[in-house]
């Protein structure tokens, strides 16, 4: 069997490193053709030596370093625009493992070139889901999601002839599920970055604490599976064993369960429709004994409600939500604002936005830029 040739954009992050572990589990099945990173070029260097990709994209400092070091047989590109790497003829699957809106252009380019695109990144779908899904349809590019909830829904829908009535997105509840909201203002980055179930990059961990991450997933699922917002339910499930569920007209509910390890959805997206051994522990439900479920508390986690509102308003509103959140979370992580102020900043930007109903790419990028500036402005006044 010919090996699957992959591009890993964002190979130095949490998803990127897990993708390389999947490659290590089945070295004969995969060839790493492209790697990319932003700043962490020392880690990238080790990956280049081990996997010998043909193409590497990296930020300015790393680019200067690698060009000087002179790696034979490897082409280096500025990381700013690595979208061309998603369309290379010797790439079969593009893994979008980078954070932020930088994934949007490679997403579109990969689909245009008819590739299988495996997004862990959710920001691109949140801000430009309509454009992405249209592009996939037009050019026959296949999207197999990595985000665990979307992967679960994809797996439950695979082979089904009927459309789902609704989906139930599960949420672990994040690091603040059991903390009273009056204590939120005492929470610093160190407290928040301790996620009880998943080990992820800092931005998405903060988003899990506000539940904005689940809100983004509501918008993401709407695009990926063509669902209205009233067909998407959020279910808090602290054990994070059920990764999501799909409910059909007849009342049947299909769920995907598994241990909490991103290697499972990553490998599935790479080898679909085949399933291979992941080397992970078996799921032991007897050891868990009980699984728990709760309704999300929208008063405690208003970000989730705001994301539902963005899904309803659609147009440029989700792009504004995403951009404002990115700026506010960064300000929290660098100590400029407190945890409770994240929502306040995002809500102010959200409400100040004049929606563009069916935005083209330029209008989305314009809304993104406006929201970032507005969020900075608001943060300066805090
Ligand atoms: P990390 O912060 O751990 O890693 C981000 C990666 O993106 C790194 O390789 C980083 O490079 C690169 N990067 C950062 N900024 C840029 C940029 N401007 N241009 C190009 N590359 C950039 O994030 P995660 O791996 O946690 O998350 C990646 C994406 O996957 C996010 O969209 C997240 O929401 C999503 N996701 C993550 C999950 C997880 O388990 N971690 C689960 C589900 C979804 P460098 O290291 O050089 O800075
Ligand atoms: Mg998720």
Short description:
45% of the residues lie in helices and 14% in strands. The protein is α/β, with parallel strands linked by helices.
Helix content: 40-55%
Mean pLDDT: 97
How far apart are the termini?
Answer: 59 Å
Bound molecules: NADPH dihydro-nicotinamide-adenine-dinucleotide phosphate, magnesium ion
* Rg estimate, integer Å: 20 Å
Question: H/E element string?
Answer: EHEHEHEEHEHEHEHHHEEEHHHHHH
Percent strand equals 5-15%
Task: Sum up the overall morphology in one term.
Answer: globular
Work out the number of β strands. 11
Unreliable sequence segments: none
Number of helices: 15
The count of domains is 3
Strand order of the largest sheet: 4-3-2-1-5-6-7
Structural class: alpha/beta
Main beta-sheet annotation = 7 strands, parallel
Provide structural commentary:
With 382 residues, this protein is an alpha/beta fold. It folds into three domains: 4-143, 3-Layer(aba) Sandwich (Rossmann fold), CATH 3.40.50.720; 148-307, no CATH class; 314-382, Orthogonal Bundle (Rna Polymerase Sigma Factor, Chain: A), CATH 1.10.1740.10. 45% of the residues lie in helices and 14% in strands. It has 15 helices and eleven strands. Strands 4-3-2-1-5-6-7 form a seven-stranded parallel beta sheet, sandwiched between helices. A four-stranded mixed beta sheet has the order 9-8-10-11, covered by helices on one side. Helix 5 (123-139) links the parallel strand 6 and strand 7. Helix 14 (339-352) packs across helix 15. The longest helix has 21 residues, at 361-381. It starts with a strand and ends with a helix. The structure holds NADPH dihydro-nicotinamide-adenine-dinucleotide phosphate and magnesium ion. NADPH dihydro-nicotinamide-adenine-dinucleotide phosphate (NDP) is lined by residues 10-16, 37-40, 79, 97-100, 102, 120-123, 147, 198, 200-201, 204, 262. NADPH dihydro-nicotinamide-adenine-dinucleotide phosphate binds next to helix 1.
């Amino acid at each position: 069997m010919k090996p699957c040739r992959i591009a890993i954009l964002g190979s130095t992050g949490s998803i990127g490193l897990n993708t390389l572990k999947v490659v290590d589990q089945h070295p004969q099945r995969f060839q790493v053709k492209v790697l990319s990173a932003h700043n962490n070029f020392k880690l990238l260097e080790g990956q280049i030596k081990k996997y010998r990709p043909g193409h590497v994209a990296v930020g300015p400092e790393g680019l200067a370093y690698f060009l000087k070091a002179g790696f034979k047989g490897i082409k280096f590109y500025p990381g700013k625009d690595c979208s061309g790497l998603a369309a290379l003829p010797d790439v079969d699957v593009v893994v979008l493992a980078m954070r932020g809106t930088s994934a949007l252009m490679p997403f579109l380019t990969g689909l245009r070139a008819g590739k299988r695109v495996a997004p862990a990144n959710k920001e691109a779908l949140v801000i430009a889901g309509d454009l992405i899904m249209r592009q996939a349809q037009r050019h026959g590019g296949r999207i197999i999601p990595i985000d665990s909830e979307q992967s679960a829904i994809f797996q439950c829908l695979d082979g089904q002839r009927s459309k789902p009535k609704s989906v139930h997105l599960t949420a672990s509840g994040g690091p603040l599920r059991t903390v009273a909201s009056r204590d939120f203002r005492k929470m610093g980055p160190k407290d928040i970055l301790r996620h009880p179930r998943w080990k992820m990059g800092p931005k998405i961990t903060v988003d899990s604490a506000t539940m904005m991450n689940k809100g983004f997933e509501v918008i993401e699922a709407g695009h990926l599976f063509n669902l209205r917002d009233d067909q998407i339910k959020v279910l808090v499930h602290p054990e994070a064993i059920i990764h999501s569920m799909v409910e059909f007209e007849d009342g049947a509910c299909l769920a995907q369960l598994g241990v909490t390890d991103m290697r499972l959805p990553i490998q599935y997206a790479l080898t679909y429709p085949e399933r291979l051994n992941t080397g992970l522990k078996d799921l032991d439900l007897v050891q868990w004994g009980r699984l728990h479920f709760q309704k999300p508390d929208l008063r405690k986690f208003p970000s989730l409600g705001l994301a539902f509102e963005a899904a309803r308003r659609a147009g440029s509103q989700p792009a504004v939500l995403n951009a404002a959140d990115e700026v506010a979370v960064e300000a929290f992580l660098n100590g400029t604002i407190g945890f409770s102020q994240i929502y306040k900043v995002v809500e102010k930007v959200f409400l100040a936005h004049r929606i563009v109903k069916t935005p083209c790419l330029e209008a989305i990028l314009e809304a993104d830029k406006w929201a970032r500036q507005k969020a900075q402005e608001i943060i300066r006044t805090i």
